[in-house]
Amino acid sequence: MAILVTGGAGYIGSHTVLALLQRGDDVVVLDNLCNASREAINRVEKLAGKKATFVEGDIRDRACLRDLFASNSISAVIHFAALKAVGESTRMPLEYYENNVAGTVVLLEEMRDAGVWNFIFSSSATVYGADAPVPYVETTPIGGTTSPYGTSKLMTEFVMRDFAKAEPKFKAIALRYFNPVGAHESGEIGEDPAGIPNNLLPYIAQVAIGRLEKLGVFGGDYDTPDGTCLRDYIHVVDLAEGHLKALDYLSKVEGYTAFNLGGGKGVSVLEMIKAFEKASGKAIPFEIKPRRDGDLPAFWADASLANTTLDWRVTRGIDEMMRDTWNWQSKNPDGFR
Ligand code: NAD
Ligand code: WQD
């Protein structure tokens, strides 16, 4: 039996495929490469000393899914495939709903028809919306999302919830990630954003290698200790390990359930800059800019449910996140290209 990983050539997917292969699982990767490179999987296979089956295809392509389920014996699906740029989603909402929500519905239908019932979904802290009290806890009702991207994650969780109510065989876990950063410690795989990065750490890393001139810090007057926003950054390898724990837990799940995957601590933008400078030995020039539309001042996870139920917790701190980001970026200044 193999694990199907959709979006497995992407940032979080590739780290998870590596962890699966390293523990001996067989893996089938389905990715349309709209935001990833085949090279990521080549490197994963090299690191693991084991091959994955790679299918270049789309989760919305029924014929492709049917063929995949018919020719591979799949025990569970880890579903990363999605479009993920918050700003872009406000300009292209239909594309986001079609890819992320309708695409997941097609995937679930084809899983049902193939008799595959185990499902892990990449959700996001963004499903808690703008008004949830911090730290975010799974018992807080989800909703109040502020972008089509966030709403696509929320809608997909509702799809999972309702399908699980109707189909007792379906077992589903939504993992709500906080802010994934870092790279595998080998420096062979990492985050490779197309164009100018939207997210903080890839931006900082590209300033450090000289591809970008200086960082704009979005807002210095928030009601936080240093005036900049707080986020719960989580090392991508810790996050990948969370998926393995969730897979192991699926057999105990009744229907649909959700877990926060975060470290449980808020770190400011200025603290991130300082930590990166310490790890890389590079100065990061920055300038305080106006607040970015839609940014929340501060949020972090209450991850105690994942700690106790999945027996999962973060083991890598900010220093490892920065060390591994810098190692990846300096070894691969142009990413996988
Ligand atoms: P990513 O873009 O690196 O990975 C997504 C992968 O899915 C890419 O390889 C892309 O080519 C593929 N893909 C997209 N649409 C597809 C389709 N229709 N068919 C087949 N493949 C398709 O992003 P990531 O950062 O690795 O994120 C993985 C998942 O985690 C996404 O669902 C994302 O929304 C979610 N997530 C990410 C973050 C984050 O900050 N990175 C935070 C919370 C949740
Ligand atoms: C972090 C902090 C910025 C860039 C986003 C999505 C979220 C999730 C993860 C998927 C904020 C500040 C950033 C820059 C800056 N994705 N910043 N200058 O916004 O917390 O979350 O990615 O689910 O849904 O919204 O992450 O890395 O963009 O920002 O000052 O050039 O860094 O204002 O305070 P964010 P981020």
Care to describe what's here?
- By secondary structure, the protein is an alpha/beta fold.
- 40% of the residues lie in helices and 18% in strands.
- It has 11 helices and 13 strands.
- It has a 7-stranded parallel β-sheet with strand order 3-2-1-4-5-6-11, sandwiched between helices. A two-stranded parallel sheet has the order 7-10. Strands 8-13 form a two-stranded parallel sheet.
- The protein is globular, with a radius of gyration of 19 Å.
- It starts with a strand and ends in a 6-residue tail after the last helix.
- The mean pLDDT is 97.
- It binds nicotinamide-adenine-dinucleotide and UDP-4-deoxy-4-formamido-beta-L-arabinopyranose.
- UDP-4-deoxy-4-formamido-beta-L-arabinopyranose binds next to helix 7 and strand 8.
Question: How would you sum up this structure in a few lines?
Answer:
The chain is α/β, with parallel strands linked by helices and 337 residues long. The chain has 11 helices and 13 strands.
List the helices and strands and how they pair.
Blueprint: E1 2-6, H1 11-22, E2 26-31, H2 38-48, E3 53-56, H3 62-71, E4 74-79, H4 86-91, H5 93-114, E5 118-124, H6 148-166, E6 171-177, E7 179-181, H7 200-208, E8 215-218, E9 230-231, E10 233-235, H8 236-249, E11 256-261, E12 267-268, H9 269-280, E13 286-289, H10 304-309, H11 318-331
Helix pairs in contact: 1-2, 1-8, 3-5, 5-6, 7-9, 9-11
UDP-4-deoxy-4-formamido-beta-L-arabinopyranose (WQD) is lined by residues 84, 86, 124, 126, 179, 198-200, 203, 215-218, 229, 231, 269, 292, 295.
